[in-house]
Amino acid sequence: MSRTARVIWDDALTSYDFGPGHPLAPVRVELTMALARELGVLDKVETAGCAPASDDELAMVHERGYIEAVKRVSATGAPDLSAGLGTPDNPAFRGVHEASALIAGASLAAARAVWEGTAEHAVNVAGGLHHAMAATASGFCVYNDPALAIAWLLARGATRVAYVDVDVHHGDGVQAAFYGDPRVLTISLHESPRTLFPGTGFSEETGAEGTAVNVPLPAGCGDAGWLRAFDAVVPPLLREFRPEVLVTQHGCDSHALDPLANLMLSVDGQRTAYAALHRLAHETAGGRWIVTGGGGYELVQVVPRAWTHLIAEVAGHPIAPATPTGEEWRRLARERTGETPPLTMTDGRNPEFRSLSGGYDPGDPIDRAIMATRNAVFPLHGLDPMP
């Protein structure tokens, strides 16, 4: 399906490091790239480097005073709580500006490649830092690279950009950046804010002309329910909105093994979502697809396999689920983490779901969440909320 796919990568992207014991450990992206390399996925794509985002580029989303505050923390390592740096979630560290600006620059490079047509799809697995706000760090995120990629597209004349966020946490920073802008459709599927950070993302948060869409799912939701919700909300809205570019965030912390959240997806269910978004990029956005990573805190069992599947999907060469992970990669994973790595690229699941078109069950909390979202936003897009 893909024509030209590009992976934006620089080994320095692993310098975004909040220190020992922090859940957002850079080894997760290191092991992702190593697994993708071992399985031949990187042979199927172009790989390109990136430059750090400039202050002017960062200022498309972030306040100048905040950028200066991050630079001061970066130079000294001293906390600045007014900027959200120096908390348990966002520890202060020397070099934080440079590391964060490079991740932002990688997503801007992906946006540039897709908008200018040098690549049809582009992916930055180190990106997806969707919680950062205009003037504060939040939720392990300093600069909001997906929002910056979208703002860059708008500045170059894009009039309709869609953003789909499948991280287990609400994509609050991206939503906030464009909440009043009907040119940007943001869709976030996440665990209910009643049980998980950041406490936002209720279905009634609908933004300008219904262009903020939230699907809060109950704790314990697995592959079948999650895919049912995705199918009931995302394809109809993308088909109606017809974006010029599709931007997606792929936090894999929705997995059952993730230590920070309570959804129950498998790698196989996540892989199914990646394939669906790939098809929708071609169907609704002319194939223009910008892809980022995101959350994911099971560093060996989940993140490398999920995002290697993601890169392979972006490349148009999906990996068979039963593919072995490879002895060299398993050796590296053991050396870097001390953990026993998985043997294959599957959790052994065969994700299936029932479409909402067959009717909904008002007694099912997943169906109630789906219908709350459809009732809140579908009429604003001229769509019938009833299945």
Please supply descriptive tags for the structure shown above.
387 residues; Arginase, Chain A; 11 helices; 37% helix
A few lines on this structure:
This protein is an alpha/beta fold and 387 residues long. 37% of the residues lie in helices and 10% in strands.
Strand order, biggest sheet?
Answer: 2-1-3-8-7-4-5-6
Q: What is the CATH topology classification name?
A: Arginase, Chain A
Shape: globular
Q: What is the radius of gyration?
A: 19 Å
Number of helices: 11
Total count of domains: 1
Mean pLDDT: 98
- CATH superfamily assignment? Histone deacetylase domain
Tell me the distance between the termini.
30 Å
**In terms of per-residue confidence, which ranges show pLDDT below 50 for 5 or more consecutive residues?**
none
Structure description:
This protein is an alpha/beta fold. It has one domain (5-48, 98-381): Histone deacetylase domain (Arginase, Chain A, 3-Layer(aba) Sandwich), CATH 3.40.800. Helices cover 37% and strands 10% of the residues. The chain is built from eleven helices and eight strands. The chain has helices spanning 27-38, 55-58, 64-76, 96-116, 145-155, 172-178, 223-241, 267-285, 303-315, 327-337, 365-377; strands spanning 5-8, 46-48, 121-124, 161-165, 184-191, 212-217, 245-249, 289-292. The chain has an eight-stranded parallel β-sheet with strand order 2-1-3-8-7-4-5-6, with helices on both faces. Helix 1 links the parallel strand 1 (5-8) and strand 2. It starts with a strand and ends in a 10-residue tail after the last helix. The model has no long low-confidence stretch (mean pLDDT 98).
